[in-house]
Amino acid sequence: MPQPERPTRPLVLAKPWVLMCALVGLTGVLGCARAGDALAPELRARADTAVRTVLARTGVPSASIALVRHHALVYANAYGWAELEPRRAATPAMRYAIGSISKEFTAAALLLLQEDGRLSIDDPAGKWVTGLGPAAAASIHSLLSHTAGIRDYWPQDYDPPDMLKPVNAAEIVRRWANQPLDFPTGTAWQYSNTGYVVAGMIAEKAAGEPLIRFLRERIFVPLRMTRVFDFDAAPLPAGDASGYTRYALGPPRLAAKEGRGWLFAAGELAMTASDLALWDIALIERRLLSDASYKDLTTEVRLENGAGSSYALGLDVLLESGRRVLKHEGEVGGFTAENRIYPDDGIAIVVMTNEDATDASSAIADTLAQLLLASNSPADAAAIADAQHLFSELQSGHIDPARLTPNARSYFSAQAVADFAASLGPLGKPVTFTLTRAGPRGGLITRVYAVSFPNEKLHAVVRSTPDGLIEQYTVSAE
User: Fold this and answer.
1) Which of 80, 78, 83 is nearest to 93 (CA)?
2) Angle ∠(336,87,85) on CA atoms, nearest 5
3) Mean pLDDT across the stretch 281-310?
4) Would the pTM of this model clear 0.85, i.e. be above it?
5) What DSSP line would sit under 168-181, residue for residue?
6) What is the set of domains in the chain, with CATH numbers?
């Protein structure tokens, strides 16, 4: 297990914001936060604690994060060990492989080529790539949305022996894309790395150049994503994070690197967390892509039977607690990552770790999402403080009737108040009191809170009128 980490210096966008911008290649560019946009010290401390808690629980060697708020990069930090032997502390300037998060860039490349008039995403794949067999009739759009039915060459969460040897895209097509379809195109959703290899081949043929070069010219350079690395071509340089794997609950061990050619358009990219955050800001602001391309990239694809797939083109598209979220996970040998974008809230969360087959990235992103979404507006912050104050009052056996609607006054009978105090009072002060979701219902504002104690987790639902009277305050075990 990793030893206690050495202190690292986070990238805090407070007074010296120009230094941060220079590091990520953003001086004078939209998307870099000035002092007023920096994450508050209390929120930074809570974010740091959240990440370190997950690393301690999982034993993952390190994590690197970047947080976007109000359309700006407001915080980046790294934690733990980029390398275990010899010990080398992680820093925010280090690159991590992002695995399948690369797919959203492949999809964007094909949409840019469509904007250029060089292809249509409705084109059949067989128009561009030969030897596809039954997959020849599948559209580029179906490849990008995982609805083509093409057999996945990499369903495992480890590297089979063949994947440690070099391969080329044509060989992957011959061995997997030429098989019978797993289902008729458009009738089901099934994740397929093979589909993205075919999509990458199409992009290269239409662009007349390697995919990685096209991505640099059309996406990375315009967005000042200066540290992007082709992880398919070579291992990360010595100054970046080393990747680890683990057998069951054993110690982290250096992970093998996939042979050249296996990652390609399905997972070839590595970068810093801050670089990925710049892409997220561009999506939030609908820059780089046309409105039509943005709609294609982010609109959920429906199957022939009308069921939603919860996937667009290289992006999961979900509604969580009333908020639209675009996200994707990534995993290659030695690394996992998660990228979440809340476009309507101006928020994005990037988490990268240097261990494969772990849920650490998702667990960290969950906590950071609660933190940022709960604190995204003064109204939310005030509501949290008020809900926590009322919780404390109920623990002591009191609630001010003037704060309640007639319905709530009826609910909070003497017996109800006594039961609240008897059951909640002994728990003491909550360790955390977090807003998990909010939204309107029936003319009321509903907010749901996760309330945690050392040995207890509770669920509080608070509904209030627009003028602030409490219609409901209920508490239950989580």
Assistant:
1) 78
2) 80
3) 98
4) no
5) -HHHHIIIIITSPP
6) 99-328 (3.40.710.10), 378-477 (3.10.450)
